[in-house]
Design brief:
The complex is a heterodimer of chains A (about 260) and B (about 350). Chain A has 2 domains: about 1-90 and about 175-260, P-loop containing nucleotide triphosphate hydrolases (Rossmann fold), CATH 3.40.50.300; about 100-175, no CATH class. Chain A is built from 10 helices and 10 strands. Chain A has helices spanning about 1-10, 55-60, 85-90, 105-120, 135-145, 160-170, 190-200, 215-220, 240-245, 245-259, and strands at about 15-25, 30-40, 45-50, 70-75, 75-80, 90-95, 180, 210, 225-230, 235-240. Chain B has about 350 residues and is mostly helical. Chain B has a domain at about 40-260. Chain B is built from 14 helices and no strands. The longest helix of chain B is centred in the first third of the chain and has 27 residues, at about 40-65. Chain B starts with a helix and ends in a 12-residue tail after the last helix. The chains are: A alpha/beta (about 260), B mainly alpha (about 350). The interface of A and B includes residues 103, 106, 110 and 114 of A. The structure holds adenosine-5'-triphosphate and magnesium ion. Adenosine-5'-triphosphate (ATP) binds near residues 50, 56 and 97 of chain A. Magnesium ion binds near residues 54, 55, 97 and 182 of chain A.
Chain lengths: ~260, ~350
């Protein structure tokens, strides 16, 4: 019910459309002819064992690595050839599996730069006042990711969990329309996981996302649909309840994790 | 109730830190201003003024290395370009080469050309990382010094230029110890304040972010290369300011002043003091210049490099962040400069 309302509130278009996307590294086909689409505002989980090609798929979507084959559309526009920063300006965001933060800078400055990066005039010799719009936006982001109390601390002094939260905050800067989360819960304690789920659930409803998540429990709490990848291909797609009980998924997913 | 609220407002950590900083800078400023009143000419100029302008050249390296993550050996070269250019455009002992411009024209042109030189160096060096940056900047430094030595038409070859002096303002002889000291102090203070200010500007923050994670900076929409080149340009301007004073202090500029050895000394000063805070290069320059002036009384000048080398090793091994890093750890406070300063 809730989901239906949310999907109605945004255009019924696709946020992301992948057709025949592949990426090869030498002889290795890391992503193999992947075709799927995600509607605007939809929240999708991608499951898959280690090396299934999940991160590589993200890299082709964000432009970190161009795909070897296939086309990628973002809200109807073909972005296959665009450099990463152009995709950012169109509202596409990502987080990294290993936090990519500015360790020497305080939390607030990390967020501030993420906000400035999206805008114009990025090379100013002036100090931004605390009432500068980007500064205010950074404050709000710190609040949204529950890091207000440590906003002035350098990243190097944060716990792992706090760094993962900041990683999410960086992706929320500007006006994101669609976010790719790469294993945001990796290495988190159960309490930190709950906090993460709270943050993700509190995101504005028009923001859709794909979340790569090994922890089925986390994935199922925040995602409406699930795609399972295996050996670079889309292996299964469906509703969480069906995926959870699918014997083939059980075998491959759990087998891949532990075998 | 009201009293309690006021109390917390006044004693908030940010306020205490701010007041502490104002007190600290006030004391330091007073000490620097009063210093010449109780020192001899040797201590005012040879130690005091020289520390201030060599420290400024080392500061240009601290800015580039500490905030930008780029270690350049060409900083003294940028200073040398400025020194040569005031000689060429201004007044020297070679009126056949020097254009004899007024100081207010010659000085800005010299600063501009040195900044442009640093920008071009940056365009070459910013494409490289780590050891390659050091190599390419060293190559540029050595090449420029050799070029000056062989070019007689503009750079007057081996002899270089003599007869360089600061302008006389309001009938004041800026070469006299006291005025020269205060001139050096003014330039150093302006450079220091400039660096501290820019460090917290959007550009300064972005530069530190480029140092920490260029990949993420690119991903969030910044031009990493442009930031690096701009950092070189600013370091060139800082070094050039020091270079003017260096030329006036010596009264001359020649290829030997900007040879590879002195270029490396700039790095030694910055590292000795510590690349973690803009005060570091000045501390490093002071220690270096004290050693330079007094070690030769104890051992013969040829051994000076041994003394400075040993001092360098001891300090760097004891504290990779140099003397300022050591001080910060001893006083158990978080580093205040640059990255974590609020
Ligand atoms: N830059 C690269 N160069 C060469 N091979 C790569 C590169 N990136 C990924 N691969 C290979 O592509 C395959 C898929 O890797 P990818 O990181 O996409 O997997 P993943 O599903 O994200 O796995 P994990 O759960 O471990 O994060 C792996 O075999 C990996 O070794
Ligand atoms: Mg991965």
């Amino acid at each position: 019910m809730q989901r239906a309302e949310r999907l109605k509130s945004v255009a019924s278009s696709n946020a992301l459309e992948l057709s025949g996307v592949s990426r090869v590294f030498g002889a290795l086909v890391a992503v193999d002819n992947v075709t799927f689409s995600v509607t605007a505002g939809e929240r999708r989980a991608i499951l898959g064992s280690n090396g299934a090609g999940k991160t590589t798929l993200f890299n082709t979507i964000t432009g970190d690595f161009p795909p070897s084959n296939g086309r990628i559309r973002f809200f109807g526009e073909d972005i296959t050839e665009l450099p990463p920063y152009e995709r950012i300006r169109r509202g596409l965001r990502r987080t990294y599996q290993n936090s990519q933060l500015f360790r020497g800078l305080p939390v607030l400055d990390n967020l501030y730069l993420a906000v400035r990066g999206v805008g114009r005039r990025r090379m100013s010799l002036l100090r931004p006042g605390e009432d500068h719009p980007a500064r205010v936006a950074a404050q709000q982001l710190a609040h949204a990711i529950h890091l207000e109390d440590v906003a002035d601390r350098p990243v190097s002094e944060l716990s792992h969990g706090q760094q993962r939260q900041l990683e999410i905050g960086m992706a929320l800067a500007g006006a994101p329309r669609f976010i790719l989360f790469d294993e945001p819960a990796a290495g988190l304690s159960p309490a930190e996981r709950r906090e993460l789920v709270d943050i993700l659930k509190a995101l504005p409803t028009h923001i859709g996302f794909i979340i790569i998540e090994h922890d089925l429990a986390v994935a199922l709490q925040v995602a409406e649909t699930v795609t399972v990848m295996h050996q670079g291909r889309v292996f299964k797609h469906g509703l969480p309840a069906d995926i959870e009980t699918d014997p083939e998924v059980q075998r491959i997913y759990l087998g891949g994790r532990h075998g | 109730m009201t009293i309690a609220i006021q109390d917390t407002a006044v004693r908030s950590p940010a306020n205490v830190a701010l007041h502490g900083r104002i007190a600290k800078y006030g004391l330091l400023g007073l000490a620097l201003l009063a210093y010449p009143l109780m020192a001899s000419d040797f201590w005012i100029v040879q130690i005091g003024a020289q520390t201030l302008f060599m420290g400024t050249i080392a500061l240009s390296l601290m800015w580039l290395g500490g905030y930008g993550g780029m270690v350049s050996l060409a900083q003294l070269t940028f200073a040398g370009v400025a020194a040569y250019m005031v000689a060429v455009f201004g007044v020297s002992n070679r009126p056949d080469i020097s254009l004899g411009w007024e100081w207010w024209a010659a000085i800005p042109v010299a600063l501009l050309i040195a900044t442009a030189f640093a920008t071009i160096t940056g365009m070459l060096a910013a494409r490289t990382e780590g050891i390659y940056t050091i190599m390419i900047t060293l190559a540029i430094a050595v090449a420029f010094s050799l070029f000056c030595r062989q070019n007689y038409a503009i750079f007057n070859g081996f002899a270089g230029f003599a007869g360089l002096k600061p302008p006389s303002l309001f009938g004041l002889d800026l070469r006299a110890p006291l005025p020269f000291y205060y001139l050096s102090l003014a330039f150093a203070a302006a450079s220091y304040v400039g660096v501290v200010y820019v460090t917290r500007s959007t550009f300064g923050l972005a530069l530190q972010a480029v140092r920490d994670n260029p990949r993420r900076m690119r991903a969030i929409g910044f031009n990493v290369y442009a930031h690096r080149v701009a950092a070189y340009a600013m370091s060139g301007l800082l070094a050039a300011v020091g270079g003017l004073l260096l030329a006036w202090f010596n009264g001359r500029i020649s290829p030997g002043t900007i040879a590879a050895g002195p270029c490396i000394n700039t790095l030694v000063m910055a590292v000795l003091g510590g690349m973690v805070h803009p005060i570091g290069p000045y501390v490093g320059a002071l220690v270096f210049i004290l050693l330079q002036n007094f070690a030769i009384d104890l051992i013969d000048p040829e051994r000076f490099n041994l003394v400075i080398g040993v001092a360098f090793l001891i300090i760097v091994l004891a504290s990779p962040d140099g003397l300022v890093g050591l001080w910060q750890r001893m006083t158990r406070r978080r580093p205040e400069g640059g990255s974590s300063q609020r």
